[in-house]
Amino acid sequence: MAEELSPEAIAASKADAKIALLATVSPEGLPHVTLITSLEALSPTRLTWGQFCEGSSKAHVRLNPRAAFLFMNRKMELWRGRCLWRGSATEGADYEFYNRKPMFRYNSYFGIHTVHYMDLVEATGKECLSLFSLVGGSVVARLGRLFALGGRGGVLNGLTKRLLSSARSLKFAAFVDEQGFPRIVPGVASAAAEGRLLILSARCGRELGSMPPGAQVAVYAINLEMESVLVRGPLAGFSRYAGFGVGRVEVNWVYNSMPPLHGVVYPRSDLLVLDSF
Fold first, then answer.
1. Residues 173 and 215: beta-carbon distance below 8 Å
2. Span 31-79, pLDDT tens digits
3. What are phi and psi of 138, to 5 degrees?
4. Which of 9, 71, 94, 231 has the fewest Cβ atoms surrounding its Cβ within 10 A?
């Protein structure tokens, strides 16, 4: 781990066409993941991102500044690390810089209304995702469904199952480490089973494999059409079925992470219907 971002990492963070994720910790101590394409490095030790819509991560960092980040370019080269949220601003040079970007400058519906700042704690060097490994892991996860008993009750709808199971979707996991920081794990392969079970391939690496059974893990899936979903639940550890190493997550929480309306899809909350006048 490094205490500064490399010049290559800084340059990659400034690209408009990239995957940029922010992981935060909920008030209950649970991992959360958000796509924030405006995330970029101001310097080797400071990052920033612009907020144009509301979502849980924006509230989380104000209550708990511990966060994690990841950005990945078109070559599937990525950098990730841990950071601390240090504050926000609603005016100033960085605020003007974000709102002059084409994506926000010419948008009639929204612009950046808040700029957030984070101090780097540590960062990895450059990592590369292997397409062969992702496809292979997806096959293993799909085969793992054959040996998995269905979870209790149907939780995952058609879109969620498709995003979590498709080899064309990029999947990232997150968990909270022993120091209370969230950690993002790239290159996760998964497949939705019956009921509420999500099968993970052991190909996703030692990071998830070292988690204790029952630890809460979040899995974020996004495809090329920018459809995305976030699910969360306890990890039942990794086992071998017919020679395949797979893990099981019993999903108990589903979050719509697509703008403009972010929110919890499951468990469903009762709606309060008011009479109109």
1. no
2. 999 999 889 999 999 999 988 777 788 899 999 999 999 999 999 999 9
3. -65, -40
4. 94
